[in-house]
# Entry
Amino acid sequence: MGKIVFVEVLDRRGSVRERIKVDSFPFTIGRGYANAVIVDDRLVSAEHLRLSLDSEGGMIVEDLNTLNGTWLSKPRERFEQHRIPPGGEAVIRVGQTVLRLRGDDFAIEPVTSSRAPLRLFSTYMESKLITSLVFVAGFGLNVLTVAQKIDKKVIWSDLTAMSLLLLIVFALWTGFWAFLSRLVIHSFRFMVHLGISAVASIFFLVFFTATEYFEFIFSAPTAARIAGFVGFAVIFSLLLYGHFSVMSELSGWKRILSSTLIGAVIVGIALLVNYTKGREFSNDLRFSAVIKPVGWKWVRTVSSDEFFGDLGNLKLKLDTMAQKGPKERTMKE
Amino acid sequence: MENVLKGKDGSMKRAAWIAVFLLMTASLLPVFSVSQAQESLTETQKVFGKYSDRVVKIQVVEKDSGAKAVIGSGFFVNPDGQIITNYHVISKLVLHQDRYRAEWVETAGEIRALSVIGVDVINDLALVKAEAMNLPFLNIATEEPQQGMRLYSMGFPHDIGLSIVEGTYNGLMKHALYKKIHFTAPINPGMSGGPTINASGEVVGVNVSSMGQQVSFLVPAEAVQRLLNSSGRSKAKPPDFLEDIRTQILAHQDVFFSGNLITSGQTVRMGAYVLPGQLSPFFKCWGDSNHTEMFPYHTLNHRCSTDDYIYISGEHSSGIISFSHRYITNEGMNPFRINNLYSKLFERSRYMPGDEEEVTPFECKSGTIARGEVTLKTAFCARGYKKLRGLYDVVLKAAVLGSNRVGLETEMDISGISFEKAVSMSRAYLEMITWEK
# Structure
């Protein structure tokens, strides 16, 4: 039997989108319908490249003097002719399309045991069932939390409105990433993004609830606020990393770096806004008002001696501010 | 709450004069038919004719624009050209000397300069000086009038020209934090600082504020005499009025405000809690309950407030103490919901307006205080006055922890108080909160 060659069209993440089996040589690849493999890509010539076999069982790829050329994927270089040794492969780029050429003698990797450590979070996210369950859990927990904040007897109308709002937020966020995915890897992967968003929403919820309890128990609004910012940054970066790993061509460490960077920038902006707002004059009272259903025995308490005996710093702060005195008026009233 | 009388700009001065003239002419008509009214009318006319030239209009003007900022009244008290008016009429000048100047308007309409020589912020009085000598002046009464005595109040209501109002003396106000005469007559904004005199032209009080149509208040003559005695005569270094105001307020508070004011007052019971109630006769208290079908809880409110205060500036006053309690009964909410609601109610507080020029922002301290059976989530917030150093506005908030069935949260606001007093009063306030089976 003669040699068989597989032409595989890859997406940008390297997954196979289409696989075409060819067993007669030489054959051509191009946009025209006279080719054995047809590529719908405006940058690909009608007859773009020819693949033939040599006497030793290797494959010869030839560019047919095209306008945009034929390129090796790694290293990225244009070629006129390229030989693939027996058992080897080549990833080439024609126009915007990435093709992988393998013969039937290509050596695959050995089988992986099902007990091998979990590979990728996103692999599990590929399962529609798991994703749906995660989403239901994330959405449900959020709605439940919101429901505890309604102080009316009949809560259904409020709850419906809030659920709808939450759904919209989920849809917009996931839709945004799905759209980006479509642009980058030519596939929406909506469910995977939805799963990632849902997991992050659970993280956010658990984390912020925890900081509230922390603030209540230790009466430490400042520490809780700082923890809030840091925690937000971490979870947000993880969320970005999740989305990136589904859709980006970046290598692992680059993904970590960029998601951390974006997370840090966003939290930086939030801190800056917070800081400027804090410097603006306001008559608001900023005190800790969180009350949680925790037995008072668990709450860190002080005696009234301790509380009122320790107001010196507060007075000092006020006196320093008052010392600065009224701002000079630059404009007339 | 009383309204401090304050005049507004008026451009209808001439029209107003004519109106007053017409009214007075018209009021002469019934004289011939009712003989009793005749006497009183002629008396008022006599008083007006004899003493009106001793009452002057005072205005505080923005230097740059020349616009009138405040208009009030005043009267000469001695041949040296010294005039008594209300502190609140000239407070802008005292607090912002660089931006305002004070003037008085002569009978002929000519405008003359005024300078401040003394203030008594507690009694809302100021002593100012005109560069004029040997003008007729009013004497200060030395004896307290009889209740029901007919008195005559003069001033420039709403900047429409000098008016005289007659009314009756109704004694000193009971339960007032600051001594005031209750005078039954319609005193209007702009008459602030004008004199209220008896038939023989002696000053019984100074117009200061009103409450409703007929109820007005006067600063007693003795306070005027005190201010005259204490200031003005000596021509030493220029006095620092801000420092004077500060000292006066702090000294006054030493007498009136203390933890003792709170601990010796009445209490009020809400559920099993005993809380501060009407602390003293000069507090007014009221309560209500709120139960709407829509909400799965109901609240019981109790609020007390001093209805008297020391005026400092348009936005500031000292010596207002107000506090409120809210008792919440849970009707079927789960622990998470009731506590979220409790947080929400606790977070609310009464809005205290303030200007960056006058006050610092609030700084707060939060904590949970355990006292015997009661555990209180507490916040103590304060802001400092920038001009009147050493005075603060304070907000104390507390919520009782430990029950998912009932909740109690309370707030006390004190304005213009020393830090130490604020702390000791806050502490006394919290220590008054107890739980009884």
